[in-house]
Design a protein that fits this description.
XdhC family protein, single chain, alpha+beta, MoCofactor_Util/Proc
């Protein structure tokens, strides 16, 4: 598992947006990268904030899996139960066959209250 990186200014902005959305009465979920392997484009600790209408800010994968994470986040908001999502190539053979976007990412999605 990769080490958690300190928040960057952009990630801190994402958390501030989540707070603003909550204050405005919007239902919000937070998706956080919790583990990476291989060529994951965002480090552990990266965030994506999503509201129940599918609006979002931030990134957990540079666009690779955001659509799937947003859909899952909307379900998490409705159900109130967190989910651990896993995307990507399951083993190291991807590197031997030359896949340019091999790797794996785990994203934890939780409703913010």
């Amino acid at each position: 598992m990769s080490a958690v990186q300190p928040l960057t200014l952009g990630e801190a902005d994402v958390l501030a947006i989540a707070e603003d959305w909550l204050r405005a009465g919007r239902a919000v979920a937070l998706a956080t990268v919790v583990e990476t392997w291989g060529s994951a484009p965002r480090p552990v600790g990266s965030h994506l904030v999503i509201d129940s209408d599918g609006h979002f800010e931030g990134s957990v994968s540079g666009g690779c899996v955001e659509g799937a994470v947003i859909g899952e986040a909307i379900d998490v908001i409705a159900a109130g139960e967190p989910r651990l999502l896993e995307f990507g190539v399951a083993d190291e053979t991807a590197w031997r066959v030359g896949l340019s976007c091999g790797g794996r990412i785990k994203v934890y999605v939780e409703k913010v209250v």
